[in-house]
From TrEMBL:
UniProt keywords, alphabetically: Signal
Protein name, per record: Bulb-type lectin domain-containing protein
PANTHER family, A to Z: G-TYPE LECTIN S-RECEPTOR-LIKE SERINE/THREONINE-PROTEIN KINASE SD2-5 (PTHR47976), RECEPTOR-LIKE SERINE_THREONINE-PROTEIN KINASE (PTHR47976:SF27)
Cross-referenced Pfam families: B_lectin (PF01453)
Organism whose genome encodes this protein: Coptis chinensis
Keyword Signal annotated: yes
Length: 209
């Protein structure tokens, strides 16, 4: 298994403690709080949690794509909800746009509740719907092998799909519809030494050999 570049970076930064490195989970150790009732079929009651010791995600059938919490490289206790490629050092390909700018920390969770709404619980905050409020109630969802996360109603009709909301990349098969934007994830962080540093998750991951 390759060492994700984050680990290397963490070791290079003397300010960061080695315990971070030790606590970083193996990228292939899946944990789900309430697993889907059949493999890959995310049904009501399924849930995930953001935790430093375990990675929590739902896989596509071939295992190429995962949907769940991924940690931001430079700050392992903060997460995004999104999709990443599992076999290339966890390259994020899509991230959920949230209504709130509050960060997602350890102990936050995501579940498809019994009413059919994906709810994000940020630690210390009220639970809120992850996707748009107007969405029809979900019966189940699937992470597909083409990187599309699709939510279905009880009649198996598509009510929401990540392909309609491109963020980090456009993959083959995906189109950029008129009026839709491609959103990149930049973060600007004020360091303790007064340095203002802009991070692009993609630049970090691109170092991966
Ligand atoms: C997966 O995580 C669990 C819980 O942290 C741990 O006990 C187990 O050894 C891990 N397995 C692998 C293959 O990393
Ligand atoms: C997933 O589960 C739902 C609810 O149990 C079911 O209606 C649906 O047919 C399942 N879909 C797949 C692809 O397994």
């Amino acid at each position: 298994m390759k060492t994700p570049i984050c680990h290397v970076l963490l070791l290079l930064f003397p300010l960061l403690s080695l315990s971070f490195y030790v606590a970083e989970p193996s990228p292939f150790n899946i944990t789900v709080d309430s697993p889907p009732s059949t493999p890959f079929n995310i049904t009501r009651g399924s849930s995930l949690s953001a935790s430093p010791n375990q990675i929590s995600y739902w896989l596509s059938p071939s295992g190429i794509f995962a949907f769940g919490f991924y940690s931001l490289c430079h700050e392992t206790s903060r997460y995004k909800v999104g999709i990443w490629i599992t076999d290339t050092g966890r390259t994020p390909v899509w991230s959920a746009k949230s209504n709130s700018y509050e960060p997602i920390y350890d102990g936050s969770s995501l579940r498809l509740n019994h009413k059919g709404v994906f709810m994000l619980q940020r630690l210390g905050f009220k639970e809120e719907p992850l996707f748009s409020n107007e969405m029809e109630r979900a019966s189940y969802a699937l992470m597909h092998d083409n990187d599309n996360f699709i939510i279905y109603n009880p009649n198996s009709l598509v009510i929401w799909q990540s392909f309609d909301y491109p963020t980090n990349t456009i993959l083959s098969g995906q189109t950029l519809k008129t009026g839709k934007k491609l959103v990149f994830n930049y973060e600007v962080v004020m360091q303790e030494n007064g340095n203002l540093v802009m991070y692009n998750e993609y630049d970090l991951y691109r170092w991966q050999s």
